[in-house]
Amino acid sequence: MNLISQFSNIVGINNALISQSEIAPFLTEHRDFYHGKSSLVLQPTSTEQISNILKLATKTKTPIIPIGGNTGLVGGQASDLKGKSVLVSLSKMNKIYNINSTSNTALVESGVILQALQSVSAAASRLFPLSLGSQGSAQIGGLLSSNAGGTAVLAYGTMRQLCLGLEVVLPNGEIMNDLKGLTKDNTGYDLKNLFIGAEGTLGIITKAVLKLFPKPRGQSVAFIGVPSPKNALELLNHAHERGNLTGFELIARLGIDFATRHIINTCDPLPYHHPWYVLAEMSSLKSQTDAQESMETFLSYARDNDHASDTVIAKNETEAEAFWSLRENLSYAQKPEGGSIKHDISIPISAIPTFIEQANKSVNHLIPNARFCTFGHMGDGNIHYNISQPIGADKQEFLDNRETVNQRVYAIVDQLGGSISAEHGIGQLKRAELQLYKDQVALSLMQRIKETFDPENIMNPNKIL
Ligand SMILES: Cc1cc2nc3c(=O)[nH]c(=O)nc-3n(C[C@H](O)[C@H](O)[C@H](O)COP(=O)(O)OP(=O)(O)OC[C@H]3O[C@@H](n4cnc5c(N)ncnc54)[C@H](O)[C@@H]3O)c2cc1C
Asked: Is the CB of 149 under 6 A from ligand 1?
């Protein structure tokens, strides 16, 4: 029996895609950087099926690529042009087994879409706080494998902090069960944390126990026009002291220009233009009035101390959603503006204004009139330092600068004590940079861990390392 039939038999013919028209959507990705080949996509429906797939893959040395919602931005889920990889889509493993409102935990399969978990948790008066622009497609397994962040990290943490346990199938087919979901469990090495952020290079995550939180009774969202990132930093410090900050995003004016120009139903949040904006959210477990009062006091401080030029509080939930939607659409809004060179970096929060100043200067020197669509999760020190081509420039000529721009930006990040990847991961996109900027002993340990878990190198080869 040929290999395609052997793999297909494990999941059943209805769960094996072999026609190129069905496989095609799995071979491209959001940024359109990677175009791969494959003859087989498997859609298993159980952990046991995945175990059998990986046993056969190890025996036949077949490369396996796990795919969640295919929203990853670094090509971790993308296949190569050799066409030998079998893609394992987790989309049919989408059961939410249990929402435990007493333990504040959710037990889910890894193919559950984030938005589905958010909705089911909300119906049980609980909050699953991870929130990001791709939440309608991204799956729990993909989010865990890339240790996703999003807009509420400063209050609730990344997927790593939101995970209490995992079930994982190892490359040899063994199943590791760590699903007790305990807050305290000091029984040796914390193995789950090896798989979180591993981008599918060590095994396939099949189930997870995730943390839930009481659903806030009040939420107040405001747009604040600020003169500079330094003022935004002052505001962040002050907002932290108030204790109920759940979102703090920095946005350059150009982002608002792009969003109002290209995203339908998007309005300028404030009547006049400002060089920078902060989108802030405050929550309260007590009441809507409490959240609103906290925000109003915070905004008075901002205006009285000249850190804010103008402010507006969302009047209702619809307006709050519109404010967040503007922020979440910034990536999409950049596309129609031509070529862009993007960086998902983190630096110590106090160094953000210095980073922006130094990086803009360095890039402008190389590309006069480059347009900076800088935005990001300022509260986490995570900036999406995105550069759009100058108006009227040739797209390819601009993109040819990518490597030099990256070198300049990452050198500044490194010098300020930052990281070349804050939340999107390494995948294929930043493999070379990882070798340059990661501690050499840490890199060697990562290589040895990979060889121990996956001696035949079948799990998502040529990603990260
Ligand atoms: C519009 C938009 C906004 C975004 N905003 C954010 C943001 O704010 N913060 C952020 O962190 N990210 C963001 N992202 C990136 C992306 O959504 C995240 O990386 C997400 O975690 C990927 O989930 P996914 O299910 O789509 O995974 P995929 O893209 O399918 O896969 C991502 C990686 O995980 C591996 N993988 C997938 N499932 C499994 C599994 N079950 N077991 C083992 N490995 C697996 C894949 O092989 C790949 O290496 C954004 C993306 C888009 C398109």
From this structure: yes
